[in-house]
Amino acid sequence: MARSPIHALFLAKESIFSRIVERAVLSSKQKSLRINLDKKIYGTFSEIGAGQEVSRHFFRVGGASNTIAKAMSAYDKEFSDAIYGAEEHHRYVCRPRLDKMLDHEWQLITDRLHEERQQNSTFFSFANTVATIDYKKRFDGHGWVGIQFQSSPQKTHNRVILHIRPLETEAQFQQESIGILGVNLIYASFFYYKNVDDFLESLMDNLSSDKMEIDTIEMTGPDFEHVDNRLLSLKLVKNGFTSAVIFSPDGVNVHPSEVLYKKNILAIRGSFRPVTKVNLDMIVNGYNEFIKDPKVDKENLQVLFEITLNNLLMEGGVDEQDFLDRADILCSLGQTVMISNYRKYYKLTEYLSKFTDKRMGFIMGIDHLMEVFNEKYYRNLNGGMLEAFGILFTRDIKIYLYPLKDRNTGELVNSSNIDIHPRVRPLYDYLMFNKRVVDLQNIDQSVLGIFSKEVLRMIRCGEAGWEDMVPTYVDIIIKKNKLFGYEPNKEKEES
Q1: Superfamily of domain 258-447
Q2: Nearest to 109 by CA among 120, 124, 94
């Protein structure tokens, strides 16, 4: 139906208005100057490793005496230890060092400035400890960046912590990007703290994903009491700031190296919407098979439940509550959850290999293995499937295959009778010959007919019987917290 002139005018005005209210992206110079000209904002800079890359922005634009109480670099390790204390294993680019820097400098500014200044100023303590790429290009840069700040005078402080990876190949360019990011963080803390989406988005102002990666974020304090840090982790992946994030069973976003470094890794990918008895059977049998391997150290093993961003987008957009429902259940079962943008297993392998060179395992169903051997997923690679498999299987990887029961014949489909296309069959046979694909044996055939989609439908429609399809206590968690659209009155109405 044709739009009326009045309707067209309304849409035009609405479009203009939306552009006006859209968040303006200021340059680092504009942000630094605005902060310097705000007489309430006052604080300290403490930067280790990459130089005074953040504070110099504020010195350059003028008016820094309004903002900077102190700027320092405890660059020498012994001098740094004398100020902040020694670190375990003598690591200086780490979260504990950043926390000590923020705490120490915050204490100094609040102790040394008189009460009148405290009544009229919003204090901040900015700190970073960053290692840039070395001159021989052997080690990539990474670092921790944080700020402790007040949103109003004498109010309890907030804290924001980031872990970053500068991606440029020259230390000078990495330093410049670190300076920009630091300015963005300070500006966001004072001008976007009421809107977490704007806060997060603004961290990459005047940067790009090929220059900087933010793979960990944590917000705490009175102004962030409503913030769920698991959602922040999800948004890092969703916004393209990083390709993967991990959070621990207690729901805390952790840096991947904290849980993956030099470990045997066993990963299972799924929707877990909700987690079912099939998922539990897969992980139990996969784990039992994995630890039989002589190359696997049972005491140094990390299990990951991985959900891909593609899976979260299956219904058109990321449903944040749906994501939290899945996370709540997995965390309550004591699992570590990974959210990634790696739809293809070879990319996931490449990522995990940055943290460990030890044997890894993927627990897969038949459908996932068939996807691995689907040529359409590798058309963007010059070497096609062979290039991807070169990455996937030059690492120390094994696939633990969970069978599928054919609905028509009742036959179990496993590695011996899976329908692999003849064109790629020789590659599959090569992997089988080298024992890279292992069939899981001690499976519970009574659960093979359970599918997450069907369980989810039953929960939402109020149908009885789904409780028997999920692990013990999961049904209680779903009902108690009303997850996945569960409504306690629906079942009564149906009956």
Answers
A1: HUPs (3.40.50.620)
A2: 124
Parts of the chain belonging to CATH 3.90.950.20: 25-227
pLDDT band at 9 (very low <50, low <70, confident <90, very high): very low
Sign of CA dihedral 149, 151, 152, 156: negative
Tens-place pLDDT, residues 209-228: 999 999 999 999 999 999 99
Residue type, 165: R
Strand ranges in 270-423 using DSSP code E only, listed in sequence order: 301-308, 336-340, 360-365, 397-402, 404-405, 412-413
Is residue 52 within 8 Å of 71, Cβ to Cβ? yes
Degrees, nearest 5: CA angle 394-400-404: 135
Q: Which two tokens stand for residue 126?
A: 């900015």
Strands (E), 132-236: 142-149, 158-166, 212-220
Handedness of CA 376, 313, 370, 349 (dihedral sign): positive
Per residue in 315-364, pLDDT tens? 667 788 888 888 889 988 899 999 999 989 999 999 999 999 999 999 99
Of 58-72, 173-187, 376-390, the one with minimum mean pLDDT is 376-390
Joined together, the tokens standing for residue 299 give 């005491």
Among the residues of 249-332, which ranges form H helices?
Answer: 256-260, 277-290, 309-312, 320-332
Q: Is the peptide bond before 274 cis (omega within 30 degrees of 0)?
A: yes
Q: What is the mean pLDDT of residues 256-283?
A: 94
Question: What's the pTM value of the predicted model, to 2 decimals?
Answer: 0.87
Residue 244: helix, strand or coil by DSSP?
A: strand
Which token pair is 136? Answer: 């021989």
Tokens encoding 204? 């990459």
Give the three-class secondary structure for 408: coil
The separation between CA 374 and the C-alpha centre of its own chain, rounded to angstroms, equals 28
Separation between Cα atoms, residue 59 and residue 42, nearest integer Å:
14
Which CATH code for domain 25-227? 3.90.950.20
Of all residues in the chain, the percent with pLDDT exceeding 90 is 67
